[in-house]
Amino acid sequence: MRIAAFGASAGRRRRSVERRPLAGWAFVSPVVVLLGVFLVVPVAMALWVSFSDWNGRGSPLSSGVGFVGWKNYSDLLLGGGLATQNLGTALRNNVYYVMFVVPLQTGLSLFLAVLVNRRILRGRGFFRTAFYFPSVTSSVAITVLWLFLFSASGVVNAVLGWFGVTGPNWFSEPSGLVHLVLGALGVEQAPAVLAGHGLLGISWWQWLSGPSVAMTAFILMAVFTTSGTFMLLFLAALQQISGEIEEAALVDGASSWQRFRLVTVPMLRPTVLTVITLGTIGCWQVFDQIYTGTQGGPAKTTLTPAYLSYESAFGNQQWGRGAATAFLLFAIIVLLAGLQRFVLRERGVPRRRRFVAVGPAATTPRTPEVVPR
Amino acid sequence: MNTTRRRTRGTMAAVLVAGAALALAACGGSSSSTSPSASSAAGLKILIGSSGDTETTAVKDAVQAWSTTSGVAAQVVVASDLSQELSQGFASGQPADVFYTGADSFAGYAKNGSLLAYGDKLSTKDDFYPSLVEQFSYDGQFYCAPKDFSTLALVINTDDWAAAGLTEADIPTTWDQLAAVAAKLTTDGRTGLVFGGEYARLGAFMAQAGGGLISADGSKATADAAANVTALDYVKTQLTAGSFAYASTVGAGWGGEAFGKNLAAMTIEGNWITGGLSADYPDVKYTVVELPAGPAGKGTLQFTNCWGIAADSAQQDSAISLVEYLTSTDQQLAFSKAFGVMPSVESAAAGYKQQFPALSAFVDSATFAQNVVNVPGASDVISDFNSQLEGLATGDPAAILGSVQTNLKDVIDNQ
After folding, report:
1. Cα–Cα distance for residue pair A317/A50, rounded to 1 Å
2. At how many degrees (to 10) do helices B329-339 and B316-326 cross?
3. Are B45 and B314 in contact (CB under 8 A)?
4. What pLDDT score was predicted for residue A322?
5. Is residue A45 within 8 angstroms of chain B, CB to CB?
6. Chain A residues with CB-CB distance to B8 below 8 A
7. Domains of chain B as residue ranges with CATH
8. Where are the alpha helices (DSSP H) in B37-187?
9. Which residues of chain B are within 8 Å of residue A153 when distances are taken between CB atoms?
10. How far apart are alpha carbons A194 and A204 in whole angstroms?
11. Average pLDDT in the A130-147 region?
12. Which of B7, B30, B35, B194 should we substitute to test contact with A (largest number of A Cβ atoms within 10 Å)?
């Protein structure tokens, strides 16, 4: 085929254009087949399993497997039994995990990126590698390390001991942080309003528990391991910002904090969106750490939807329920990712000005803000 | 232009069909279509979840010996995550022929038809402990041969015992005596009795009080019975008093670790503790006695595995003959010698006691041992119970058991 021949006559070019789709499909077919076999078909089958009563024996597509409609989903969301309680507990745990990990890792990785981006910093290469190192280490290895560090007589508690603090028995302490704080303020029992009502099988008081001490150790671990990766993303974005913009801001008399807050961070908005989205997705999918570390304990406070899905399927032989849990998790992630895109979408500066003030005066910025571009 | 587009669509369809066909082929389809698998040519496949090299070697040697006499090739595979690999096998329609099956997952596999109910075909079936046969029966059928079993007993640190001025006459036989010696053995940095805060330990107290999570025939949930409340009340009182503690509270992974590190003077464990102690804490001296009796008499829990045979196995007769060999009295005693398990047949009890006179209490406990819950789908309920038991010291036993009753009843009613 001479598809790629340059300077061909108009007739030949048209023919080559016509032949291109077939050749194109031939070239992409390996990827299409691979994606189909390893992605589309398994996802479609899992979706089918979530609507079926498949019991784990033989193919889910065999004739003995029945369609049960929304039963698996309604057992999980509306059943009110143990399945609902487990889902509610898992969602509660994961919501706190996301609420703490995402802001902390985004903040820390931006901070690290700004530090190692400085031209005057000595040994930049060393620090970049050092900060990135936890990200390339296997999460299982880090979990095992964490179990030792945070054991009752581990290093962390020894260090806390220097300051006269008796550290908790991290991975077997189910009390939630909010409950601990409230307990310290004298609120030991749940107010009747919170204890009597609830969502997804667990009371509002339990929803408000905060992450357990065990979960806090996992939160610290997630921040430790992922900040390096996101630092790299921020670093790449920071290096895209040309020095002239910085200089222009400097000439306008912006202080270094103002330059960071009003010039650098707005220009990093696409990267912030990427980091927050990837971070949220990663946090909702947390599994390895739980599987290797605590298996959901103590008192289910490190149970997450991903682990719950695995446990219902492989541990309890309830494949439909496991698959349904996985698709609920999928829906949550898609919704949140969409929400983040909406909140952090590009908003043109002029339009915002128009909203602020109407009239000819609005064309000249009156605020001392330094506006990029 | 039109033809091209049609052809393109045709190609795309072909690609998708090819992909789908490949994927479906990979999923195995139903067992009837491609039953004589590649594994039948290679002989029996035995999947085990091993506790370590000694167990693996012992099983491999035994299977090898059977292979030589029977002429059937057999291959032992060690699973890193047994339940996951079993599930994969059952879903693909080509599972391992013979495999370890835990008592807790047994009923689930029996219910979905993955297991072959071969128990009644065994010539030695009357030799198994009746309670073990009951554990591996589903819908009145004896499914699989118990591999071995273990019971819970009281393990006492003899140095601590003597240091506290206690003698052999003080070995507790009632709950009150247990509480008294535990209090006496509790010192600064050491708790009298430490055990894991879970159903698999506290269930023994429930058995001693005459309770249990389900009725003997498995048809009714009895979690909220008064006997169970009595048992948990007793444990709660001792936990609050500080003479009992959970392993996690004293910073140990399990009772054996707390015992080995002398964070505990006594613990409640099965005979596997002997291996752990001799490997990690060889200097600890201990004695094993039966658990003290509760208000309703003696009681303990027993744990067991069976040799499952796949319903989809192409060589069921060879598999049954292998299991008969592996569960024979002599072979079970050989396993006991190699890695310390307790034989599942009554005819081997005397031989076991001869091998391990210090551990007779474990075998003797078999006469009053209670099975763990094996209703399909109950493992969620048990893990929920365990998570609530972690908070027993500050919790309300009746409320905990009430929620377990609700959940367990749901599971049983939905069978």
Report:
1. 13
2. 60
3. no
4. 94
5. yes
6. 21-22, 25
7. 38-149+304-364 (3.40.190.10), 151-302+372-413 (3.40.190.10)
8. 38-42, 53-70, 82-92, 103-111, 130-135, 158-163, 175-185
9. 251
10. 5
11. 88
12. B30
The average pLDDT across A277-298 equals: 90
Q: What share of chain B is helix, strand, coil (3-state, %, to 5)?
A: 50, 20, 30
Q: How many CB atoms lie within 10 A of CB A344?
A: 15
Main-chain dihedrals φ then ψ at residue B288, nearest 5 degrees: -115, 125
Residue B399 DSSP class: H
So what's the ipTM on this one?
Answer: 0.76
Quick check: A58 and B111 CB within 8 A? Answer: no
- Strand, coil or helix: what is B194? strand
The CA distance from A346 to A344, in Å, is: 7
Q: What percent of chain A has pLDDT over 70?
A: 88
**Is any Cβ of chain B less than 8 angstroms from the Cβ of A298?**
yes
- Tokens for A144, please give them: 């095992």
Tens-digit pLDDT profile for residues B264-284: 999 999 988 888 888 889 999
Q: Rounded mean pLDDT of B149-157?
A: 94
Question: What pLDDT score does A13 carry?
Answer: 53
Tell me which residue in B19, B91, B390 faces A41 most closely, judged by beta carbons.
B19
pLDDT digits over B105-139, tens only?
888 889 888 999 999 999 888 999 998 998 999 88
**Chain-chain contact of A83 with B391 (C-beta, under 8 angstroms):** no
Question: How far, in Å, CA of B373 to CA of B380, rounded?
Answer: 11
HSE (side-chain half, CA atoms, 13 Å) at B199:
26
Residue type, A355: F
**Interface membership of A149 toward B (CB under 8 Å):** no
Going from the C-alpha of A295 to that of each of A83, A303, A327, A372, the distances in angstroms are: 17, 7, 21, 49
Domain boundaries, chain A: 10-50, 75-176+211-348
Closest CA to A217 of A108, A309, A130, A293: A293
DSSP per position, B291-346: PPBBTTB--EEEEEEEEEEBTT-S-HHHHHHHHHHHTSHHHHHHHHHHH-PEESBG
Q: Which fold has domain A75-176+211-348?
A: MetI-like fold (1.10.3720)
B7 touching chain A per CB within 8 A: yes
Q: What spatial distance separates the first Cα and last Cα of chain B, rounded to whole Å?
A: 61
- Residue B175, amino acid: W
| Range name among A230-239, B36-45, B215-224, B340-349 with the lowest pLDDT average | B36-45
Chain position carrying tokens 């009110």? A80
